[in-house]
Specification:
The chain is an alpha/beta fold. 32% of the residues lie in helices and 26% in strands. The chain is built from twelve helices and 25 strands. The strands form seven sheets. Strands 3, 4, 5, 14 and 15 form a five-stranded mixed sheet that branches. A four-stranded mixed sheet has the order 22-24-1-25, covered by helices on one side. Strands 6-7-9-8 form a four-stranded mixed sheet. The longest helix has 14 residues. The chain is globular. The relative contact order is 0.15.
């Protein structure tokens, strides 16, 4: 689906969708707990549906009604050859793989679409090799590089050494799985730890579901033989989606956001501080922002910087290259089409502010966050903006364009 947007500012109230990151974690924890849990305020985005189906594969019973999940979980060992469809969700793949190794003695095959087969997995490959676990990745052997990865074997307690600079998702996956093993484990972080905020969410969810993990000076200490405890859990609003409306407001819209936890642990909550700094800064002063711990908000924050007079540098953002698309290149390319003065480096974006953006045809690159960023850009463009592949928003925010229209946005959908 393509959308044609006529520029107009947004105005009104919007209930922010529930956090996808927190929902992943709560659903997995509930599925690993014996007994009934109720996880409420869940948006059934493509990524969340992928996690639900994968956990059903491992024996969890999940009933869904109006955004409420009633989950009968457990963590019993099974022996089955299972196929896990991760769709395009890197979180699902990296969270579920070690859990499957902890629970299933059979062969676990992971499939998906988009660029998921090209996403880095070397950390798990190396762990499997060290533990004698069969690991076969045929993803790069098929024409479209679609995910085709299988593992078979038993994950064993040990001291795991993990590169902290690749993705915190590998650490989260291990933190879910290791409490289920018979003995204690350690995860030793090597190098600088990225996306710390996501690990705060993981630790918080694990604690809420009765799992005891401690962290000290780069080492996670995980007790074995633990049991997840069933409970009711409410998923708070998602600050990675707040970012789109924060930037829209910075550009002149008037959107009142509801359903947020102002004390949230979400790392993307930093968007509030980033935009505040833009508003209060001297236009003649160069600003520098570190995007290492909040990669998901960088495309839309870059839009705000493009219309701030003066120079802005966004650094430590090389991880944008390994998202649903190469977001570093796509952000520079598509904002450049709109008339922004933006330069891409290996690990940074350098932006010189312009007075306005122009209407044109832009491409979402099949990436939900790119599509939503470009829709916000269209609200202040000088002419219509056509976004190709806008259906990609279904990955994280399926009703984004419904909300966009309810706030006064003017769009025409073209299939």
């Amino acid at each position: 689906m393509d959308v044609i947007i006529t520029p107009t500012k947004l105005k009104g109230n919007v209930v922010i969708p529930p956090s996808k990151s927190i929902a992943h974690r709560a659903i997995i924890c509930a599925c690993l707990a014996r007994g009934k849990s109720i996880v409420s305020n869940v948006a059934l985005s493509d990524d969340i549906v992928a996690t639900i189906e994968c956990m059903r594969n491992l024996g969890a019973q999940i009933d869904i009604k109006d955004g409420v999940l009633e989950i009968e979980g457990g963590a019993e060992r099974i022996t089955s050859d299972l196929t896990f469809d991760c769709k395009e969700s890197g979180s699902t793949l990296r969270f579920i793989l070690p859990i499957a190794l902890a629970l299933n003695d059979g062969k676990n095959t992971f499939v998906g679409r988009g660029k998921l087969g090209e996403r880095p997995m070397a950390i798990y490959r190396d762990i499997c090799k060290e533990q004698g676990i069969e690991y076969v990745d045929n993803s790069l052997l098929n024409a479209n590089h679609l995910l085709d990865l299988s593992v078979k074997g038993e994950l064993k307690s040990c001291e795991f050494h993990v590169d902290g600079g690749v993705s915190s998702q590998f650490i989260t996956g291990l933190l879910f799985a290791l409490p289920l093993l018979g003995r204690d484990s350690k995860i030793v972080i090597e190098g600088q730890l990225q996306s710390v905020g996501y690990l705060h969410l993981t630790m918080s969810a694990l604690k809420d579901f009765g799992i005891d993990i401690s962290y000290d000076r780069g080492v996670f200490y995980v007790k074995g033989g633990q049991q997840y405890v069933a409970r009711d859990y409410y998923v708070e609003g998602d600050y990675s989606q707040v970012a789109f409306y924060e930037v829209a407001n910075y550009l002149g819209s008037q959107v009142d956001m509801q359903g947020l936890n102002t004390d949230s642990l979400q790392g993307d909550k930093v968007i509030v501080d980033f935009v505040r700094k833009l508003k209060s800064s001297d236009k003649s002063k160069k600003l520098t922002f570190d995007g290492s711990n909040c990669p998901d908000i960088i495309p839309v924050f870059s839009l705000a910087c493009c219309l701030r007079q003066g120079r802005t540098d966004i650094i430590n953002v090389s991880r944008l290259k390994i998202k649903e698309c190469d977001r570093l290149s796509a952000t520079a390319q598509e904002l450049g089409k709109l008339g922004a003065n933006i330069t891409q480096g290996e690990d940074f974006l350098s932006i010189e502010g312009v007075d306005k953006l122009q209407g044109c045809v832009v491409d979402s690159h099949g990436d939900h966050r790119m599509a939503m960023m470009l829709a916000i850009a269209a609200t202040v463009a000088d002419g219509e903006v056509t976004i190709l592949g806008a259906q990609s928003v279904s990955k994280s925010y399926p009703n984004f364009f419904d909300h966009f229209v309810s706030l006064g946005g003017k769009i025409i959908c073209r299939n």
